[in-house]
Amino acid sequence: MLNCSNSLPSSEDQMKGLSNAEIALMVILNIVAIATYAIFFELWNYLHNNIISDSIREKTLLVLGIFPVTTIVYQLGMFVPRAGTLVDFVAAVYACIALFVFFHLAINYLGGVTEAIDKLQYVDAALNVGPCCCCCMCLPKVRISRKAYRILRIGILQTLILQPLLQFISTVLWADGNFDSEEVNPSNPLFYMKIMLNTSALLSLYVFNLSLKAAFGIAEAGYHLKAKYAIIIIYIILSNLQPLILGCLATYNVIPCVDLYPSKDRASKIDHHIKILEMFILLLVSRKYYRKQMPESSPLYFENPLHTMP
Questions:
Q1: Is the pTM of the predicted complex or chain greater than 0.85?
Q2: Domains (ranges, CATH) in the chain?
Q3: What pLDDT digit, counting tens, does each position of 152-203 carry?
Q4: Among 95, 118, 169, 249, which has the minimal tally of Cβ within 10 Å of its Cβ?
């Protein structure tokens, strides 16, 4: 008889209840996870031996670390089902850090803040970019002045502050035991937390699109900024929309209860398993672009965008 209660199994109960197919799936996912770690360490070795700029090398490793870190937390969650919300919190915090560092890295590619603004102020940046305003063709084009840069910086910073804060509040509410993080219900405060989390993510996507699309035309082709940016965008979409879609499917029993897992928790389990595969694929694609030779004109020093500008 299926256990469709609201309680998740302990790690011991889960291991005892695994079928042969589930054991095979866990073995495959662990092999994929190990392959992800191996690719990352190979990239770490390559970057240390081939990237002269300490700033670019460190920030590149922090950005690429988003894939093994996400993999390891969901790998742990695979063995400890009751830690699902906690591993989501850890993955979200590191993702925010990595996204903010990627913004730094893109500025670094342009020569630092001062040089980047000197270049961008002559570029017309379109406001009608996705995911918020792609249909608003009437919006004018603007040039990224120092004032515009400060506004864009706030749009990036809000993700670094709001995402971890909202995830922490969600984790505290989940730990109370009265709220289900996977329940799509207007009476559930975690439902509104997810709405705010996705709104914050969409805003950061818009700011990234606005600023980096303007930078595409002036960044050297050797940095492969478009490809690296596309990988980050895919990660953001998968991290925010995939669990929301699976949660909705579970609410309407499209994803049914199976064995020890209620439908909502099974949706979360499926999301975590899929992400282990997705992180491997994204890191494999990233390797193609981050392993290429950097332009010789790469700046050796980086001006922190958080510093106060005159």
A1: no
A2: 11-290 (1.20.1070)
A3: 778 878 888 888 888 788 777 777 666 665 555 666 777 777 788 778 877 8
A4: 118
Using CA atoms, how far residue 4 sits from 1, 111, 294, in Å, is 9, 57, 54
Q: What is the pLDDT of residues 238-294, one digit of tens each?
A: 887 888 788 777 777 777 776 666 677 777 788 888 999 999 999 999 998 888 776
| Residue written as token pair 């606005």 | 210
